[in-house]
Amino acid sequence: MQLDKVVQYHKALADPTRIKILILLADGELNGQVLAEKLSVTPATITHHASKLREASLINERRDKNTIYFSLNDYFIKNSASATEALIYRRTNTKGETEMLDEQQLKARDAVIRNFFTEDGRLKHLPGQLKKKLMVLEHMVSKLDKGKKYTEPEINAFIKTFHEDFATIRREFIMHQFMFRENEIYELNPAEMWARWENLS
Amino acid sequence: MQLDKVVQYHKALADPTRIKILILLADGELNGQVLAEKLSVTPATITHHASKLREASLINERRDKNTIYFSLNDYFIKNSASATEALIYRRTNTKGETEMLDEQQLKARDAVIRNFFTEDGRLKHLPGQLKKKLMVLEHMVSKLDKGKKYTEPEINAFIKTFHEDFATIRREFIMHQFMFRENEIYELNPAEMWARWENLS
DNA sequence: TATCTAATTAGATGAACATTAAATTTTATT
DNA sequence: AATAAAATTTAATGTTCATCTAATTAGATA
Which of the listed residues A22, A58, B40, B91 has the most CB atoms within 10 Å of its CB? Predict the structure, then answer.
């Protein structure tokens, strides 16, 4: 269940030492000893915090000889927050207010789809802007069957009908929780798809 | 220091029971007993969690006779996350991606304003949709002087130039933190107004 | 005033967790 | 093979915290 993920993410950020680590890493990668020095704690403490940050996908690690350098996983930091929101405001838009803005939103989405896909339905490239990217991902994922389980090669093949770089896009599917992965099997997130980017805004 | 605030906010969300409370409140206000019942905990536990959520400004409370009803503080839930980001990445927006959607957002806002106000600037009614409501509230509040202090009758009179139901709208101002109230004196929230709903999207 | 209901407080318990020192592991260097 | 450097693990300690029960407070009603 995704509740655990959200809790885990916030736990990771619910400690001053860990926040300070992230702030330090925002200026560039650092190794454990240096972090320990700067924060006046022992290396063991850094190891401890690093594992929590790693489990929440907030940092990356790179080994060079004996030394492990930590760096921010900007991507997750920027996007995990919206997962909380999406969890809290899960329900679809209940009130029947279908006014102009909604129509414009629909138009905007169509424009984005037309803009980022070719006539024969191939993806040109992933949008940089979060909201547009979500629209694009949602468009692709909407072609999958709800409830059906897919193997990784199947998912790869599916994505390749849109774009060569299946690895990146597959990662985006997971990261934005359009899909779940459980022991090598992929499945669509049962939540309403449209609610995703509409509720974010 | 703002680090504490950020840590406090994430601590508030770093517990499954509290997340569940927020999810329940997303469907509308509930009192302590009902929450306790739905979550299979004692009322004392709810009191405990409510105080944490309150300290992080994630919920509002309303008293009716013996009963206290809790509701979401949507505004804080949506915006506190970006405070974390701002703390970690002190620098401003680097990417120059100014594409179509932003322009459409501006157009959309204008459309909402035109839609909910008459030609002579009166408010027809408050939108039900959060985003639109924020636009409408911001539009009104932008006519007030930043830094100036207002008495309650002054605020009421001001609101009545837009709409008869000053009580509701005044409450909305406070609830969505466009204004502060401190011993019967009202004042504009010094935060940038535009940042408010733009950051939501 | 007495009574009812909802909420809060106080104190207790057990689990989770941040931190450290000391021992161990990993990887590279001589 | 021996040594050095960085990271990790282990075990211990003290703190924070979620939860409960029982007692108390606050507000409303009869």
Answer: A58
- Contact of A116 with B86, CB cutoff 8 Å: no
Test mutation, B3, B9, B13, chain A, max A CBs within 10 A: B13
**pLDDT per position as a tens digit, B68-101:** 999 988 766 766 766 676 667 753 333 333 334 4
Confidence grade of residue B50 (pLDDT, cut at 50, 70, 90): very high
**CA–CA gap between residue A172 and residue B175 (Å, rounded):** 36
Mutate to test the interface with A, among B10, B39, B80 (most CBs of A within 10 A): B10
Pairwise CB contact (< 8 Å): B100 & A84: no
What is the arithmetic mean of pLDDT over A164-191? 70
> Does pTM top 0.90 for this prediction?
no
Which residues of B fall within a CB distance of 8 Å from A90?
23, 26
Chain-chain contact of A26 with B104 (C-beta, under 8 angstroms) = no
Taking phi over 0 as left and psi of -120 to 50 as alpha, with beta for the rest, B183 belongs to left
Contacts (Cβ under 8 Å, ≥6 apart) of A188: A141, A144, A145, A146, A147, A148, A178, A179, A180
* pLDDT (0 to 100) of residue A147: 64
**Contact list, A10 vs chain B (CB under 8 Å):** 10-11, 13-14
Sole residue written with tokens 């906010």: B9
Element (H, E) at A129: none
pLDDT, chain B, mean:
78
Closest residue to D27 (CA to C1') is B66
Tokens of A117: 């896909």
CA end-to-end span of chain B, whole Å?
27
Pull the structure tokens for residue A91: 């329900």
The predicted-structure confidence for A28-80, as pLDDT tens digits, reads as follows 899 999 999 999 999 999 999 999 999 988 898 888 888 999 998 876 676 67
Strand C contact with A49 (CB < 7 A): yes
Structure confidence at residue A178 as a pLDDT band (50, 70, 90) = confident
β-sheet with A30-31: strand ranges across: A30-31, A67-72, A59-64
* Chain B neighbors of A14, CB-CB under 8 A: 7, 10-11, 13-14
